[in-house]
Amino acid sequence: MHIIEFAVGFLLLAFVLADAFQTLVLPRSANSSLRLTAFFYTVGWNIWRWIARRLRPGRQREAHLWAFGPLSLILLMCLWAMLLILSFGVLQCSLGSSVSAPERAPGFWTDLYMSGVTLFTLGYGDVSPIGPLARTVSVIEAGMGFGFLAIVIGYLPVLYQSFSRREVVISMLDARAGSPPCASELLRRHAAQRTGLCALETLLADWERWAADLMESHLSYSVLSFYRSQHDRQSWLASLTCLLDTSALVIAGIGGSADRQARLTFAMCRHALIDLTLIFNTPPIPCAPDRLTTGELALLVEDLSRDGIVIANENFETELIKLRAIYEPYANALSTLLMVDLPPWRRERPVLDNWEASAWEKKDAAADDWILHPRN
Q1: Is the pTM of this model over 0.70?
Q2: b or e along 327-364 (b: 16 or more beta carbons within 10 Å of the residue's beta carbon)?
Q3: Same-domain check for residues 233 and 268
């Protein structure tokens, strides 16, 4: 037995298994700097972004960015499989290539071939282990290959269920806050209904649960952060930021029955936002230019007042600035990292929602306004 080769093969095997366990099985995030998955996504996403910046903004760039999440997952699985084959091949080679093979003098490449055949349980029979140690290693590899495939098969449905659950709620926000969603539009559309802002409390409670689910699923399966929404002008980051903006407006100046729930939703959404920046080791970045200048804030207050939403707090602007300072830099950091636009605070002009637009028709932005905003 060659001790050095055996040690290299064993350490490589342990490294790959630990990384796969932390990624697929462990129900929490692992921040070890030695993780293969973290290195893979850091390097892979930087290369993918570099290419994206050289593509034309719009559908071409979005299609390129959209492909990274699913494709990276497949490539990561392939990388794990290749490293497992390599590690067991090195282990067999350290045992002196104790195999029965057509070659007169089997060597490392024969061991590597047998390792691949064994991991995927192909069983051609042209190469077989000789001796108790070589046979033991082969049995362990076959069992590990079977278990690896089973875990991967079970992992994908869980991943896509979390993605689907996330997107269902985001799609429902389209008719409530516009495309892209914005806080002023969300408040105005609720104020236009007979129930006024009372229904806002229920919506904020639903989004508090959504933010909690987002945090748990994306911390456990961080690859979901790279999965972009299926519809244009929608994203999980824009929706999360919109709800933070809305909650901040309610807390700072609107108050009322939704104030308590707004504080709970704000706390949960900020918690999710900060934890996700920690996963990617991304420090907060102040927004430049400012998302909401003093002049734009005055226009926002005017928009709200026209729909009967009164700002009752004299220190409204000061408190809003304080609230924005504790979440906007984190949202901007993820926006920069993931190449996702943050939502505006208010609409400068009428824009069709996603549900109103299609590739076969063009309509005025206010054509279907009566459906969502019936006049009393």
Answers
A1: yes
A2: bbbbbbbbbebbbbebbbbbbeeebbbbebbeeeeeee
A3: yes
What is the extent of the structural domain holding 271?
Answer: 178-372
User: Closest by alpha carbon to 243, among 186, 326, 292, 202?
Assistant: 186
Same domain, 150 and 186: no
What does 84-105 look like in DSSP terms, one character per residue?
HHHHHHHHHHHTT--EE-SSSS
pLDDT digits (tens, 9 = 90+) for 124-175: 777 888 888 888 988 898 898 888 888 888 888 888 899 999 999 999 888 8
Q: Are both 146 and 214 inside the same structural domain?
A: no
Evaluate whether 244 touches 51 at the Cβ level (below 8 Å): no
What is the spatial distance between Cα 37 and Cα 45, in angstroms, rounded to a whole number? Answer: 12
Give domain status of residue 222, yes or no: yes
Cβ atoms of 219 and 225 within 8 Å: the answer is no
Q: What are the residues whose beta carbons fall under 8 Å from the beta carbon of 101, sequence distance 6 or more?
A: 110, 114, 126, 127
